[in-house]
Amino acid sequence: MCNYKNIWVLLMIIVSFNWIQGQEHNTLDPEQNTSHTDHDKSHEVHKKHVLSASINHTVIFAGIKDGNTKSITLPSFGLNYTYFFNNKWAIGLHNDIILEDFFVKESASFATRSGSEEENISVIERGTPISACIMGIYKPIPYLGLMVGVGREFSCHEDFTVIRFGMEAPFHLPRNWEVFGVLTYDININAYESLTYGIGLAKLF
What we know:
Blueprint: H1 4-26, H2 36-46, E1 49-65, E2 68-84, E3 89-98, E4 102-105, H3 108-114, H4 117-120, E5 123-126, E6 130-141, E7 144-154, E8 160-173, E9 177-188, E10 193-204
Antiparallel strand pairs: 1-2, 1-4, 1-10, 2-3, 3-6, 4-5, 6-7, 7-8, 8-9, 9-10
């Protein structure tokens, strides 16, 4: 069964990051608080590049374990590069790897389009799959990034096209470091779907 409690905990962390950052800027002393907009522009001009890594959990909704179909949660990690055009828009190469082998039930919707559902649904084997996605990122506020992109998941067994949706919530640290929460949803075309959540560390330069 999907661990919904952990997902809600992550969402609460993301909301907390946004609230703390807002409070931090509201309580700046007058010498530091030139203006919120000026701070964002200065930050953007000098810090367009971001390298980040995250430790995650990935929920496979149609995983197969002990002969039964169930949601399974597996450890994973991410390694990303992001380039910011301005303080609102960015593009990135986001890469994830699931650290275990697993089996998953083929998408029922694909099996139905292929013919008889019972005859066409099959088991897909994945061996520590690596996904690489080109992501477009939009930041409606400084401490929340909304993401959408497309890429490919690679495995020694079979490769799939991936459509990814997600969001990140960064919390700025001294010396151009950030800690962030991340939540993404992957649709592996003609295969399976998964949800990834985690926490990471980023370096801005």
